[in-house]
From TrEMBL:
Metallo-beta-lactamase domain residues: 37-103
Family matches, as Gene3D superfamilies: Ribonuclease Z/Hydroxyacylglutathione hydrolase-like
The protein, known as: Metallo-beta-lactamase superfamily protein
Domain of life: Bacteria
Length: 174
């Protein structure tokens, strides 16, 4: 259906890095992503929180430019929270941190953080893995859980890939 209507396949959209115009979604939530990867900025009393970081340095630079376009300073980013351990979500984190917000702490759930340790170093995306400063561990399988930053809570929902990562970790640690 999609291919008939547009001439494109669904796989095309998974890797489409065309920027989407940054927008203030509401109050303190901003969208700064591309067609293939949603990125959000949450403005808090403690600074900015980036949710996901895109594929790589190009996406990190686009995120910074988008933030500036919205009147936000990339240097005010205090946390870069990664929703899960796929390279299209973590790939830009270290680039963004190093170039724009060296004080920012990078956080990911403990399952994906542990998963990094069992993926072979020769994996194609291994060099893009960020240094993890915070392991988020208040997860309950199948239930929403909060990211807690100061007094503010943010929710994320379980996905199938976390379960796969957890199974893989158990398999390799035996």
């Amino acid at each position: 259906m999609l291919q008939e209507a547009t001439g494109e396949t669904a796989m095309h959209y998974l890797f489409d890095r065309t920027p989407i115009e940054p927008v203030q979604v509401f109050d303190n939530l901003f969208y700064i992503g591309t067609i293939s990867v949603a990125q959000f900025i949450v403005r808090t009393s403690e600074g900015l929180i980036m949710i996901d970081s895109g594929w790589d340095e190009q996406d990190a630079d686009y995120a910074a430019a988008s933030m500036k376009k919205l009147g936000l300073s990339p240097a005010d980013t205090r946390y870069i929270l990664l929703t899960h351990g796929h390279s299209d979500h973590y790939g830009g984190a270290q680039f963004f941190k190093d170039k724009y917000a060296p004080q920012a702490k990078v956080g990911i759930n403990i399952i994906d953080s542990n998963w990094y340790s069992v993926i072979p170093a020769e994996n194609a995306f291994a060099d893009m893995r960020p240094q993890i400063d915070i392991e988020l561990n208040d997860r309950r399988p199948g239930q929403p859980h909060p990211f807690v930053i100061g007094q503010e809570k943010y929710r994320q929902y379980e996905d199938v890939f976390r379960k796969m990562a957890q199974d893989a970790i158990g398999k390799y640690q035996k």
